[in-house]
Amino acid sequence: MAENKLKLEDLLGGFQRAEEDERIDYVAIIGGGLMGQGIAQTIGAAGLDALIVELDELKVEESKGLITENMEREIARWAMTQSEMKSILSRLKWTTDINDVVECDLIIEAVDENYDLKKSIFKQIDKIAQPNTIFISNTSTLSLTKIAEVTSRKDKIIGMHFLNPVPKVPLVELVRALDTSDKTVNIIKKFAAKIGKTAVEVYEYPGFVTTRAIVPLLNEAMHILLEGIATAKDIDTAMKLGYNFKMGPLEMADSMGLDEVLGWMETLWATLGEPRYRPSPILRKYVRERKLGKKTGEGFFKYDEDGKIIY
Ligand code: NAI
After folding, report:
1. Most buried of 18, 114, 216, 225 (most Cβ within 10 A)?
2. How far, in Å, from the CA of 66 to the mean position of ligand 1?
3. In this structure, are residues 105 and 25 in contact, taking their beta carbons and an 8 Å threshold?
């Protein structure tokens, strides 16, 4: 009997230790751009702390400024209170020193869509982070299996493909790479639920579900514009009213960032070889001109300081 009790206590202690191992209270986000800001705000709103790593002080200030502006816009729309914003900001910290991620329970990478950059970051954090820490990438199109190869923890690499604007989109795609373990998937499923997202599990494949399905539509809208069939405004109005879309495809591309959209198309075109992913020349033209959409104030449309289209 005494022996059985001991075993039960051992078992319970074991569960407790396992739960402590899996606790996620402090999350590092590498890259404080459009997606990094949205992920940070979402994590802060869920009552967890986040550390955002950026390249330099200028980028840190830009990231802080934009996340604050975004929440101020929500307050102006009565969608958030001052005290909610204060509480979220009090949970966020910024740094330019990647070594600080050592203190975090989970690391989310959200830098530009570029293999070499992502690989160099995963290689670096593999040396810095605790051995049990799970690494997440927010990549839209790149292979996590290839990114995982540069680490010594292939079972702890997983994709969490958040969509823009992260605080408002309730979905996240959980992307399994070749060696991602079931334990990692389960921990991250719980984390997704904790930050208010519904997770769909997808296997690694260029573009997963959401990017792969939306890219041809965005590309087609760009071809229609280039061929002079309708104006940008009319293309978007047609799709909004005709198919009950909240946002037209050209405004959607602008809000995603035209450089990011071009990057996704190039990867899908190169990996799947289907002409429907070949980027429209008008997209390349805008990116060359650094008209990157909402984030630069101009893309297919022009935007005011509040991010509203100026017609
Ligand atoms: P972004 O260009 O707005 O932000 C990237 C940020 O990473 C920049 O602020 C840059 O300074 C920072 N950065 C670059 N190198 C760094 C380094 N070594 N250390 C720390 N920070 C560094 O790009 P965005 O749109 O936020 O995209 C990030 C990732 O999320 C990409 O992989 C993209 O494919 C993915 N994604 C983007 C979506 C969108 O709608 N824009 C939707 C879903 C995923």
Report:
1. 225
2. 14
3. yes
Is residue 71 helix, strand or coil?
Answer: helix
Residue-range domain boundaries for the chain = 14-203, 210-310
Going through the chain in order, the beta strands assigned E by DSSP cover 26-30, 49-53, 92-95, 106-109, 134-137, 157-162, 171-176, 198-203, 302-303, 309-310
Rounded to the nearest 10 degrees, the angle between the axes of helix 210-226 and helix 232-243 is: 130
Model-level pTM? Answer: 0.89
Q: CB within 8 A of 177, min separation 6: which ones? A: 143, 144, 145, 147, 148, 154, 157, 158, 159, 204
CATH superfamily of 210-310: N-(1-d-carboxylethyl)-l-norvaline Dehydrogenase; domain 2 (1.10.1040.10)
Specify the fold of 14-203: Rossmann fold (3.40.50)
Is residue 53 within 6 Å of ligand 1 at its C-beta? yes
Per-residue pLDDT of the chain (311 residues; tens, 9 = 90+): 455 555 666 666 655 555 656 789 999 999 999 999 999 999 999 999 999 999 999 999 999 999 999 999 999 999 999 999 999 999 999 999 999 999 999 999 999 999 999 999 999 999 999 999 999 999 988 999 999 999 999 999 999 999 999 999 999 999 999 999 999 999 999 999 999 999 999 999 989 999 999 999 999 999 999 999 999 999 999 999 999 999 999 999 999 999 999 999 999 999 999 999 999 999 999 999 999 999 999 999 999 988 899 98
CA of 94 to the centre of ligand 1 (A): 15
